[in-house]
Amino acid sequence: MSHAAALSPDQKRTLVRDGFVVLKNVVPREVVARAKTLIKTDPTRIAHGDEPAINDLFKASMVADVLEEAMGRYTPPINAQVAVTMPKYADAVTRNRATPRTAPVAHVDGGWAGPCPETRSEIEAAGGDLHTWGKDGDPRSLGPAGKAPLWQDRQRTVAIGSYTALVGVCLNDQMTPGKGQFAVRRGAHEAVEAFFRHQRAAGGPIGGGGPDWPRLIPVGEDTAVAGMMPKAMVDRYPDTAFEHPDWPWPELTPVLMGEGDAVIALHSLPHTATPNLSDEPRMNVYFRIRRLRDENPFEGDPRVGWGVSDHPDRCMNGDFLDYPDDYDAVGMSVEKLCDHWSEWSGLKGFVRATPETSDTAARV
Ligand SMILES: [Fe+2]
Fold this sequence. Notes:
alpha+beta; 6-stranded antiparallel beta sheet; 3-stranded antiparallel beta sheet; 20% helix
């Protein structure tokens, strides 16, 4: 049996409340099988380019229709992220599962993340500081992992890339906790939006390095990392503990899915991969979807990496796009970061608008 072509009213209420919703049996069995065969030939491959067997998980499933009904028109994905977590991947960090030494931490996509290439003493010697490090940095540079750029624009006003929804297609049984699930801070999407509003009201920049969000966090003797969510944001997340004997991270909610299920999660919902404590590979494929912006001349441009990029206002490789003078690409993204439900035309009636001046979460 396959999924209906639209979210039910209950599913829409769940998406609004939790920031994510699971679609059961949404991808045909044969489409799943074809994708798995391809992935198994090379399980370490992270990104498959324009690969029909992978992209059909979205295109040849009900996900495409469900999303269009909920969101309105969006830019079709032409790339995807294949995410395989091998079994016992985290043995080293979870030897004592009751108190793992390194717990997975949820993040919002689009920020420059990873170890800082300069030591703390080097930063200090140059007269800089951890909070605003990168303020004068080359806006063209990509993060240490070669992913998100340091800035989204040449003017360095926005430090976080964004899109509308992360769609994760599940290719193996992940119904019991501890199987390397995609996990989320359930319901925290409103606190994230409120934080972006706060940063905008304070004059920006938006993202790491902006108001109340230190770009770097000190770690170890003399090093620092980027990509952690700021305390001022995390402190506002709702308390949604997930208690289960095989799940050592109660602040995270594992998204429990079976083969052929999918999850739709808002960009603003903090999420993370989790260690795979089971005996079989965890296999998911992710599509990053942004609602169509009619004025944007680069919708569908393959340089952007539509479907896989978390910074679609720039090229996937970090190059800038030359927007027309009358189109403010990052200004539009900030507007959406600060009003995420405005990108979901099919959820009207399920979302209660919050005044722009409010930083409280008052959604139904
Ligand atoms: Fe992510």
